[in-house]
Amino acid sequence: MKISKKMLVSVAAAALAMTGISVTSAATANAACSKPILIGAAMAQTGFMAPFDGPALETAKIAVEKINVAGGVNGCKLKLTAVDTGTNPDKGQQIATQLVAQGAKLLLVTCDADINLKSEQVGEKAGVLVIAPCVGSTAMGPDNGENLGYSLGSAVPGEAAIMAEYAYSSLGKSATLFKDMSIAYTTSQCDAFEKRFKELGGTVKSVQQFNQTQAGSLDKPVTAQVAAAKTDNAGVIALCSYPGGGAQALAAIRAGGITAPVISGFGMDGAFWAGAVPNLSNFYDVTYASVFGDDTNPKVRLLLAAFKRTTGQPAATSGLITGASSVEAFALAATRAGSFDGKALSAQLNKFHNEALTAGPTSFSPTLHVNVSRPMAIIKTTNGVHKLVKYAAAVKPTF
Amino acid sequence: MKHGGYTKFSLQNLLGPLALLTVATYFLNGASTSLQLITQFALCYFVMVLALQVFVGNSGVLSFGHGSFALLGSYVSGMLTAPVHIKGHALALNQLWSFLVPLQVNIYVAMALSALISGAVAALTGILLMRLNGLAAGIATFALLGVTYNIFFNNKQIGPGSQALPAVPTITNTYILLLIAALSLVCVYFFNISRIGRTILATREDAMAAPALGVSIFKVRLIAFSISGVLAGLAGSMYVHVAGTFQVQDYYLDFTFMTLSMLIVGGSASIWGALVGTVLITGVGQILLMMEQNLPVFGLHITIPLGSRAVIIAVTFVAMLLWRSSGITNGREFSLDFLKKLSKKN
Predict the structure, then answer these.
(1) pLDDT digits (tens, 9 = 90+) for B59-105
(2) Which residues have C-beta within 8 Å of that of residue A68, sequence separation ≥ 6?
């Protein structure tokens, strides 16, 4: 299908209207905007962060185009320049320096708080706003010396609380935890799950630890853990992991005869790993949105369609919607501030209260620069078919 | 006679590298903000390469362990200067021993301390390591790197572990870094031409003859190892104050091989070689990076695939070892003699 420019404009305008971004029309463009406003992306297009950064960067580009078609921000067009950091913090710092020197007003950085720290500090020093689309820890923010650093991700305290609350209310009152020890994200996820689940009155029968290698497979079979979990006979299994080791562990759980519901987080989003567990049933996943075509948020469906159009591939996981929302948050804050100055933008972002971005209602505060109260999608898998159950927010985010 | 390495004072041997260091820093520092950052890192690398030159270049014993001292220097300097509220609140430091939180000293005091502590640790580990020769010494120093790395990487009580310590104050004035690098260069030069420096060269050239003349190989190597530990600690400390964060991974394999290649490509036997190697590897790396990003290099647009930078540097390194194993400078110090030769020919 050939898409006419007019159609694009109307789609974009509709999308923008929905995101609630009021855009000054190009006609009232101020004279200061002879050049487009530069958004510099020091993100990973190669290296192990590329699967997270790449799709988010694509949706950021889509959002920039949409905003430009609708006239820009404060009368200025936006321009996105992306340079590959190769998942290397030093290269990230250098590229961020280069982009700031070119006049970038927003730095988009890698989706890992430790890897993006050097780039973030470049922005911090230069007074430029820094957004990491999908950092899932609460590391970014003033406690880390990052007054201008934000993440559009939904962080673990919220995600794990949703997992625990849904598990307790709908799946079972006792749980066995499968805790992947390989990264901070999964360990903190299981810790927060355990805390919240017990708070609600549930019992945690045991915590089974396992590990996966950097290449993404189990470092040794989880037979013993599965056997122990089977004797637990818990109502629900919480699997804090990510593919491929996470998928292998899930396959082992099912092969070991445990049929209890299994609940996971964003780490196990998507269906790209489903081949490892044929005919998977009774599996629940708490994540950003549904990539399976049944998301209830029209903005998400529109963005996923645009992603498929520009990249030629369907979205593998839903984390990519944070890329578009990073640009939306920047545009919204800039419109409200009437400026692109980092501090002014940060002051506006700190006032964000349930702003309707594509990634869902987004809030920040002067102390918390990442989302913990945003509703997340709960997706159920039955016989290998994925269906959105509902969106739910954490009743009590657990730190 | 295998390598160069000069034993008599010669003004041009000292002023040549100092002049290149100053001129290169001056021009690159002013060119652009991103080149300024690269220059600052290059100055840190240069001090590290000098540290390697003192030991590896003079003794002929390969060391993969100097990253340990850089790591230690960086850690000491980073932890002593990062703001107290950051050390108390950052997520990466939530298991830190509480007595480490309030420690705070001036940035230059911290740099001096890190150099001293790294030097002391080098002296202590050197007592064990300097008894070894050849392959065994290389492997043992590599083991030292592994031990240090794992202690810091896995221990969240003493630092950020696998995560990053944020908000380390930075030195933004390139000329302060230049001054430190220049002073290090002068110190290394005078050490190299000192009596002990000459003795170490003797042990490198003939490990049988030197002891026969009453030289203790263990003793002179230990002295060189300790001095290079001081310099490596200083280099690590400079690095952390340019990077603005302390991260254990920064001083591991990439760092080790990068600085060793700088020394070997330039020519390990001389200070001039250390400088030329640092300038060259930094320069080529930067040009390839610009090509990867499709930026014009000297007005030319040459695009290479993402990630080919690492491959090209590695291939160059192999070619270098095959065809000019004593480095570009052939291990010689800077000299204007070639000008005289040219004028004689004419």
Answers:
(1) 999 999 999 999 999 999 999 999 999 999 888 888 899 999 999 99
(2) A77, A78
CATH code for the domain in which residue A279 is found: 3.40.50.2300
- Burial status of residue B126 (CB atoms within 10 A of its CB: 0-12, 13-18, 19 or more): buried
Decide: B61 and B146 in contact? Cβ < 8 Å: no
Inter-chain CB proximity A94 and B34 less than 8 Å: yes
Say if A370 falls within a structural domain: no
Answer whether residue A127 is part of any domain.
yes
Question: CB-CB: which of A95, A100, A143 is closest to B90?
Answer: A143
Show Cβ contacts of residue A113 under 8 Å, excluding neighbours closer than 6 positions. Answer: A132, A135, A137, A139, A140, A144, A151, B91, B163, B164
- Chain B residues inside the 8 Å CB shell of A95: 34
Q: Which chain A residues touch B86 with a CB distance below 8 Å?
A: 143-145
Report the domain count for chain A.
2
Note the Cα A344 to chain centre separation in Å: 25
Q: Are residues A136 and A73 in the same domain?
A: yes
With an 8 Å Cβ cutoff, the interface of chain B facing chain A consists of 32-34, 37-38, 41, 83, 86, 89-92, 162-164, 166-167, 170, 243-245, 247, 250, 289, 292-293, 306-307
Please indicate, yes or no, whether residues A347 and A218 belong to a single structural domain of this protein.
no
Res B2: pLDDT? 46
Parent domain of A170: 156-287+376-392
My answer on whether A179 and A122 are in the same domain is no
Say if the Cβ atoms of B33 and A117 lie within 8 Å. Answer: no
Considering the domain architecture, whether residues A67 and A107 belong to the same structural domain is answered as: yes
Q: Is residue A108 included in any domain, yes or no?
A: yes
Confidence of residue B346 (pLDDT cuts 50, 70, 90): low
Average predicted confidence (pLDDT) for chain B = 89
Same domain assignment for residues A37 and A62: yes
**Strand (E) or helix (H) holding B160:** none
Across the interface, whether the CB atoms of B167 and A121 are under 8 A apart is answered: yes
